[in-house]
């Protein structure tokens, strides 16, 4: 089985790279499982002080794997999405998301869960669940706390897309820069984080994420069950199959 998530450690930085070109880094059971494993490994490695999540492709993440959702269902996948967000939020190391290209639906949960997200100004975002008869249930755990109430209502209910500049204005990402400057900007953030003493970073992150982590633990299972039920509903199955057929056409 081809590895979909790579882990490389150098100079105190663990780089976790999503690399699933056949489905544009969709959150398949394999990809989410490998992402969880890489986050756990990096979090437990004393040589790692900062974690960077990025994509090897020209798309960051296309959201749920709809082919998998229309065949094996989302019982596992929905809970995995909760688990991935928790693994980022609870990780003892600061997590930085390097965001380039399209980010859709579930992928936005990774961006929101990260402690710091740096996006290219021409990256694009959309919470498209509503257009497939779904709700952004599991990722609401991390996305809603990043947005104002008005921004959340607009993004969740319309499914309209927005670019990296708007994502920063809404609070979804920390900062945006031209794509040509993305690696430099991420490097600057990482350099600043590496100046922190591991204990200070760990305890500060706990303070920042205490309420978010408690909410994930309190509501995550229920939201995963809601999400799985919506994915399995006739309305969503019909909409997802229509979308997949249009994409093939």
Rg over C-alpha atoms, rounded to the nearest angstrom: 17 Å
The number of E-state strands comes to 9
SS summary, helix count: 10
- Biggest sheet, spatial arrangement of strands: 1-2-3-4-6-9
Instruction: Describe the global form.
Output: globular
Helix and strand element order:
EEHEHHEEHEEHHEHEHHH
Derived from helix and strand composition plus strand pairing, the structural class reads alpha/beta
Main beta-sheet strand count, sense and barrel state: 6 strands, mixed
Helix percentage: 40-55%
SSE topology sketch:
Layout: E1 5-10, E2 13-18, H1 29-44, E3 50-55, H2 66-69, H3 75-90, E4 95-99, E5 102-104, H4 106-113, E6 116-120, E7 124-126, H5 140-146, H6 149-158, E8 162-163, H7 164-170, E9 175-177, H8 182-194, H9 198-231, H10 234-248
Parallel strand pairs: 2-3, 3-4, 4-6, 5-7, 6-9
Antiparallel strand pairs: 1-2, 7-8
Helix pairs in contact: 1-3, 3-4, 3-9, 4-5
Please provide a written account of the structure.
The protein has 249 residues and is an alpha/beta fold. 52% of the residues lie in helices and 16% in strands. The strands form 2 sheets. The chain has a 6-stranded mixed sheet, with helices on both faces. A 3-stranded mixed sheet has the order 5-7-8. It starts with a strand and ends with a helix. The model has no long low-confidence stretch (mean pLDDT 96).
Explain briefly what this protein structure is.
The chain is an alpha/beta fold and 249 residues long. The protein has helices at residues 29-44, 66-69, 75-90, 106-113, 140-146, 149-158, 164-170, 182-194, 198-231, 234-248; strands at 5-10, 13-18, 50-55, 95-99, 102-104, 116-120, 124-126, 162-163, 175-177. The model has no long low-confidence stretch (mean pLDDT 96).
């Amino acid at each position: 089985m081809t590895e979909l998530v790579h882990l490389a450690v150098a100079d105190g930085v663990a780089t976790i790279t999503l690399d699933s070109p056949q489905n544009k880094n969709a959150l398949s059971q394999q990809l989410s499982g490998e992402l969880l494993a890489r986050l756990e490994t990096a979090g437990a490695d004393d040589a790692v002080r900062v974690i960077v999540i990025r994509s090897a492709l020209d798309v960051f993440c296309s959201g749920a794997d709809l082919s998998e959702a229309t065949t094996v269902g989302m019982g596992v996948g929905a809970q995995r999405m909760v688990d991935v967000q928790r693994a980022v939020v609870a990780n003892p190391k600061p997590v930085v998301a390097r965001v380039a290209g399209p980010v859709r639906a579930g992928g936005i949960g990774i961006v929101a869960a990260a402690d710091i997200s740096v996006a290219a100004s021409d990256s694009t975002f959309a919470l498209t669940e509503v257009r497939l008869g779904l709700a952004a249930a599991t990722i609401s755990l991390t996305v809603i706390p990043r947005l104002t109430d008005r921004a959340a209502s607009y993004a969740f209910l319309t499914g309209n897309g927005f670019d990296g500049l708007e994502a920063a204005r809404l609070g979804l990402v920390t900062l945006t820069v031209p794509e040509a400057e993305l690696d430099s900007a991420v490097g600057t953030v990482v350099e600043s984080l590496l100046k922190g003493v591991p204990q200070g970073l760990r305890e500060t992150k706990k303070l920042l994420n205490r309420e978010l982590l408690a909410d994930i633990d309190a509501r995550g299972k229920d939201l995963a069950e809601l999400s799985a039920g919506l994915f399995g509903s006739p309305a969503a199955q019909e909409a997802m199959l229509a979308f997949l057929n249009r994409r093939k056409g």
